[in-house]
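Sample entry (576 residues):
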Amino acid sequence: MSDLAKAKFSAGWTEPEKWAWEKIAAGEPADFNARDRRYYIGFNVLDPCNENGWTENRRLRVKFLRDILTRKVFADATPYGGVRILGALVDDAPLNLEHARLERLIWLEHSRILTDVKCRSLRVDGDFSLDGNFVGGEVSLNAVELSGSLSLAGATFKTNKTIDLIAADIGIVLNLERATFEGEVGLNSAKVGGSAFLGSPFLGNGATFKAKISLALASIGSNLEMDGSTFEGEVSLDSAKVDGSALLRGEFKAEVSLVAADIGSDLDFSGASFTHRVDMTGCEVKDEFRLGSSRHPRARWKQDASLVLRNAHVGALQDWWRKPPGQFWWRRWWGKVAAFFRRRALGASLAENSWPKALELEGFTFDRLGGLYGTGKEADMMARPSSCYVEWLGRDSSSSPQPYEHLASLFRRAGEPGKANDLLYEARERRRRAALSKVGTRGHRWEAFEGVGLWFLRSTIGYGLGNRYFRVLRWVGGWSLLGMFVLILFGTQSPALWSWLNLFFASLDQLLPIITLNKAYDVLIFGDPSAKLDPQPPWVLPQPFWLQVYFYVHMMVGWVLGSFIVAGLAGLTQRN
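Predicted structure, serialized as tokens:
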């Protein structure tokens, strides 16, 4: 830089500004904390959130910052390391860099900025960092274009207005770790080439969002990490696209929306805490949807929390589920006592699994059960008894059989027909209970017929599912015995010619449709129409008329049972 340029642009500079430019021009950080540490024994680094110690000897005027960042003579004199300023005070005017083009990276960190930061449509050939700052004014970073990263890590934004990052284009990384936002954060339609860190798994690296944060229509080139952060306002990821994994493992105190979100790898809820509704309608997760595993803590849901998975699809489903206590009374009693003390010790929100009490599962599909860490007693989903899945699906507020049928088809493909039949049976039971619950309600008269029909299918052939199919044998045996006792008590046959066993088979023969075991059984009940009344033996005479009417009903019951059997064999009862 020429002496003329120095004289022209530095004539009105203050001593702190001259010192800062000397450091920048020399390729060193202009660190006011390091400067004061050299001159003051026992100096402690100033806290940007605490106004004490921020005096005139740290003030950098906005005009000075605009000059060294935007004027060509200073930009050409700035080394490739860029402008790095730490511990400065900016409070004289709004920091306005709208539509500017910066050829070097800029770090304005651990400083106290009491004015607005207006950087709309700013272009930076490098990184832009506001790490550790206290910002008391409005922040506008919408439509910024960075070839490097944007970092707001550890910063505190006290403004109640929206932190505007709408349509920002960040080349590498967005870092909001340890930051505190009093107002809303808008990242709608933002594009991040790499990962977006809205939290970190490392202790103490979580951010705090005290109002709504929106990433609707945002595009993340790698991972989205929201680990260990606290979200007091709504979180929106509607129609967002994350090419890597989305780690929502923070504390969410308001509603979370992932409607139509597209996750290219895993969606991880393990260890997260949810207080209200989580809506994943139409969400697409290519790989694993994890709510807990053998190596990950389970998701926790408060009393009013719910999860909506309507029309969502995930590649693999991995959760954590504690098996219910044993069947013996003392095990059940002890399990309830132990759960009571665990709730008292760990909080009322403690659940025995990683799912909320309220679910919406209609249209929810998944390709397989169990993920990367799906081993162990509570995480092995394929080894879990069907009763756990019945309880899980029972939390669905809809009456759709689709969730049952989808899970049953998966078990059938995995060689678990028993579990598949248990789920399909419960789906029919739920439909039957729903139909009968509407009996007597105006406009739902036909549900009574459906409920009665399903009750007959349940009682006779168990909807044709698995071993329940043989329930029909109880009906066949019961009606056959009833017919036998009717013949014994009221029949006119000769006891010498017909034993009780023969009477049982005669009753069974009338019950079986189409098939005739012995024509003599027909003669026993209805007589021999081709024989004369005299002098034929008495046993060929027909039974009394009312007894014949009974056996007509007997045969009708047989036809009904036979139709149920045929329908069950044809698989008609397994369809909706």
